[in-house]
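Supplementary Note 3. Input sequence used for the single-chain structure prediction.
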Amino acid sequence: MPEKYDVVIIGGGHNGLIVGCYLLKAGLSVCVIEEQDHVGGGVYSAELTLPGFILEPASAMHGMITANPLLHRDELQLKSKYNLKYIYPEIPLGCIFKDETCIIFYQDINKTYKSIEQISKHDADAYIKFKDLCDQMLKIAHVGAFSPPPTWGAMMSLFDSSPEGREYLRIVLSSGWDILGEWFESEKLKLALSRFAAESFISPVEKGTGNIMFFISMLHRWGWAMPKGGSGELARALKDCLLDNGGKIKCSSPVKSVITKNGEAKGVIINDGDEIEAKKAVVSNVNVKQLFLNMLNPDDLPRGFTDKVKHILSAPFSCMIQAIALNEAPIFKAGLKGGINQDIQKTYYVNTCQFTDEYLKMFELAKMGFPCSGGPTMGVATLYDPSRAPAGKHTLYLAHIEPYNLRDGGAAKWDEIKIKVADDVLKSAQSYTVNLTDTNILARYIVSPYDIYKSNHAMLNGDIGHIGGFLSQSFANRPLPGWGRYRTPIKKLYMCGASTHPGLGVTGGGRAAVIAILEDLGLDFKKILEK
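The predicted structure, written as discrete structure tokens, is reproduced below.
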């Protein structure tokens, strides 16, 4: 006899676990089925190189989830009961340039002003006003951020109902680079801020990336956070919550197909042939293309639907990540001249930046399939969380955008060249420091774009956000127009995770999917939270 649960969740990434925990709170029985030998998906950390060094091969910074009621209201008691602790660095972000200058973004807006003032008094003043605009944008963007987004038409109508909404819409339709050019005169500040747009793995000159600029407000209001002990602590707390409340987890169990009958999802078949029955719902936390192209019979879907799924675009770029064990923290050249710039040595997340022509060319080359090495990002979590390394030692998260399909040899070519490209990226990072030497580096763990896909098939084409974060694939259009509110053409089959709104990153977006699922089950989400 097959196992039976009220809800079966395909994929144990952080969003799938979140869905499971809330549904258990609603009194439903839940089973989470995961392909990998551990849950968490990209929210994972481990001793990847040497004992005592906790490193991350994927998500390192937790940004948007800090504003999610899941955390700030502790709705699942992850903090109060399951010992999840977040650290909020006072200095979350900095950008250093080849001429050994830098801009430092503190959570404190006034300290940020003083850092920008060194570059341009005009831009420091403009930044305060721009941040106020972003605060207003954030209020509008919060509509549907952690609950099902309004339909595209309703959202456009909402935007068009006020001067603030119309300005937000103009910004959304623009590129991040366009908007920054309107506000600032300094090349350095525009480059530093454009990295917010680039975090979506889309060039900041792409129309629609203006939407991402509101993260500037989030940086100052909520901060950028990290779980104490490593990114995987979020997954660990969710796992503990799920199991403690009677949920079931099956790891190393790839799902082969979704069982459907009379247009309804009835369960799943895993690769060993076992069936698991879902009495009320099946929830997919995997890539939208995995679900509809691999796990369902096209005849069960509306005519033309699978063609629409095939046309969903991946992000233009993937990334290479190096998780590095260090003897001592990097010392940046930009912080050796005294003054406020010394604080770059205490900055959690540091972007290195070429100047404009070289910087923008990097995105074009990556889009054409050429590996790149300039302008990597460095994250030193141990500056704020020493528990991640042996006493006095440090960790380094070194990331860089790269193409998934190489112009010469496609994705599989990465297995041949990843060490060479990783070395080139490391050399670029070394040029901004005085001590990132061979003797300081104790061990490296290198993840190529192809490795990203091989380790997690939900990250099709090495896309850690499942699908590209283009405006045409955002809000209620994510993953498809008409199917961006977590429901699917198959009754009782739902989606959550990065393929759905709000998309890429550690967002806790599974909370919004739960609201849609419970609504269809006739259950009141707010009343369930009161339990």
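The first strand starts at residue 3 and ends at 10. The chain has a mean pLDDT of 95.
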